[in-house]
Design goal:
- By secondary structure, the chain is of the alpha/beta class.
- The protein contains 13 helices and twelve strands.
- The strands form two sheets. Strands 8-7-6-9-10-11-12 form a seven-stranded parallel sheet, with helices on both faces.
- α1 links the parallel β1 and β2.
- α5 packs across α7.
- The longest helix has 19 residues.
Amino acid sequence: MTAETKKLVYFEKWMDPVAEQILAGKDGIDLHRLGFGDAEEGNWAALAEAHGYQLLASNEIRPPFIPERPLIERCPNLLAFSVTGAGYDMIDVDACTEAGILVVNQAGANSESVAQHVLGMMLALSKQIVQSDRRMRLDRDDWDRWTYKGKELTGRTLGIIGLGNVGRRVSALVGRMFAMRVIACDPYITPVDFGERGAEQVSFDDVFAGADFVSINCPLTEETKAMVGKREFQLMKPTAYFITTARGRIHDEEALAAVLSDGGIAGAGLDVFAEEPPPLDHPLLNFDNVIVSPHIAGITDDSTYNMASSAAEQWLTIFRGARPPRLVNPDVWSAYRERFGRVTGETAEE
């Protein structure tokens, strides 16, 4: 391996083969596949030499190859971690920043797919599509079509927590398709941003109190962990629905089960859980007015292609010493330039 060659490792496979098509054969890039079933010492040897580590989804990475401080300390040549989608909660970002290692995500690459999943859950819940399908397969007793009378989305209010790449697409879709009123809370954007994204800026509590549907579209961070609990669910209307396609552990699952048991809200659509997949005896799986999916909101033919190609192009940018477009820890840049020069003998851009 020449001094100019950058070694990029990944476990098992990319989300879509387009990434390997982009990277394979590129001058200066050594693409190296690892397997969790391979000898651990061989995997560690490859990681110790690696300049880049392309990660699997958070629930697919296996210890001891978790991107945290112990791994960082064993990988002296590592320049960057890249995640498959937008979420980076599996990475010790602070440790990366201290070490001069970049963390990049593919924010926006799956936002259309996730936004459409939110809309699908809203429609399925309000029209009782899943509930009526289940019942038709079960029996013909004690119900008729009026049992599953639905509600339109038209003119109702959607509350969004997090008006980023996904939240803004959800806002645009429901506004244009169903003339819904959109209210939102996001402390990291300006009042002008709210207007451009078709939402009214309201407080965190007002999202829960005022919405007919509450959609969680923010990342899992120390700030958002356990952010939605008993108090927030009790603010919601008894006719309202809770929907999350973000991350488990942002909402309190026990508190959600309790409010559903008490009839405090009308139902929920859940694509994420604290433990994935959830155990078959999970309390939230027992409610007829809860629909679930196995963390697939962002998994479509379209989005996996977008995420893989986005990641590959971003690696090309990183390895030539340029600033990547989706840098999670921008404060790292000064330390990264020093690390990049020390590891590669080259100079990263200012």
